What does this fold into?
Amino acid sequence: MASDDVLILKGAHVIDPALGIDRVTDVTVSGGRIEAVGDAQPRAGAQVVELGGQYLSPGWIDIHVHVYGALGFADPDSIGIWQGVTSYVEAGGTSIGTLDECVAMWDGRLDTRLYIGPLLTPFGLIGFNYQEGDARDLRDIPVGRWLDFVQEHPGLLRYLKLNGHGYSNPGMLKIGKGLAQILGIPTYTHIGEFQQTTPEPPLAYEAFRVAEAGDIITHIFHNNLGRILDDDGKVRPEVHAANKRGVLFDIGFGGYNFAWDVAEKAMAQGIVPHVISSDLQQFNVTGPVYSLANVMSVFLRLGLSLSEVVDRVTAKAAASISLGDRAGSLRPGLPADITVFHIESGAFELADAVRQTRKADARIVPVMAFKDGRRFDSDLARCLDERSWFMQVVEDRIPERAARLAPPQLRFLSALAGALSAIDWQLTAPQVDLDKAVELQECFHRTRRELGLPLRDALTAVYDCFLDETFTMQIGLFLLRLDRSFALQRLRDVTGPRSLAA
Amino acid sequence: MSDWQVLEGLHPETSVFPARARVDGEGILIFKTAAGFRGVQRACPHLQASFLEAQIVGNGTMLRCTQHNYTFRFSDGKGINCPGVNVRVFEVKRDGDTLSARAV
It folds into this structure.
């Protein structure tokens, strides 16, 4: 909105736990920022939005989503602003070896404010259910590059994601903690075994011991190996100890990571999550997660008050990632990030990640969101469009968008085809060949540098050869997943003599 | 490719699909799509969730496991969003009221 535009959001039940507001009143927005919370007088030229019967809160913050890499979306805003989420954190899809690619594609280009929680291992999440990097990656933590990146992109990185699963050796957690301290950000540790390996003892309990006040542990109510309950259903002592120390507990609902019975037993013993997040990704957006609002509804059913639920996606979520100076409340002067929602009454069945359900008589439904004062009417169906969550390589034809590539991009693709033809690759399962992905990535970047093509143009050129909808994935992994002969032929077809001459 | 095997007890019009069947001793599921019938192994290779609740997507060309969205192509069993993870698929033909299947 223009700097002098005034917007009055009238008559909603305003819940702002940070300011202690929980009543029907008005919110005035001016120039994209919060001007005031309180009964507003009529004002010449102001746009008024009547919100009687609705709730209004600071814009929701989801500290755990996947919008980059194999788990991501072609339309990341479909799980953000269009679902009432004004800011979110990409949780581990990228890392120091691929952050430049992620930033080139998404930073500043979404209507939802994107922050990044990079993974410790340099490539970021592999996805595809392959095992992630193992101990060999510990040899490759370029601290200087990390520091340079943080300096060049202040405020972009909000936590360092660690894997508290996959092995028993706590070295990764401890080195990760050290790097996070150097970078001045908290750790954000995944607990719970959900992949093929089942290390014994699981690393989860060490994660509770390594974490310090302000560090975050996610998937707190999962029911896989490494859960917070012992065999008798009691919360384990290291979990209580971490809670007392000020370690923050986050939900990260996901497709594997939340179980009703674990949540019920743990909350009865005083373990209440500090933050509610979704872990939305293309593998769970059609269920059981659906949206952050759905996860919030689960916590209403678990007995938190509406204000307590809102607190965990606004003030507490912001505080957990040191975002309180720009989001999480309606304090005058802050960017006008606002979510309007209603409570729908009815008979609902809420599912967890392990096929347990609970009946509920209410659920939270976003109505609209404002980002810097700009309005977005909620559209929960947008993310269910296959084109958003489903990365599909177009095999039977050249995508139309390839015809719109610029000559420098075509020259790059032609050079890339030549360079790639010297590399043999094949996708292997169940363990991805990370070294090969890195080799393909280096080939891509070397070719790009030689031609002086901007990174975004080079990435887009490759995506557009193979996809109808842009999925942003680590380029080495993207190339690795393509059948080699098909990929080389497609590059040649796109850059054939006629294309290059055009 | 195995020999055609009649799917006893299945009727192309009156049976409920997906339907359990057996080919070469292996229990499979027969799906009815807009393009015809197709056989698929019974469980998702990811975490062994039954395909009985799977959804047919992509204009009848793909099968999506509803547990974690792993999606496979009916034509060759190739994992679409989970490259490297594939399912076994079976060709199914109709001859009057009889269905027969064979491994692809």
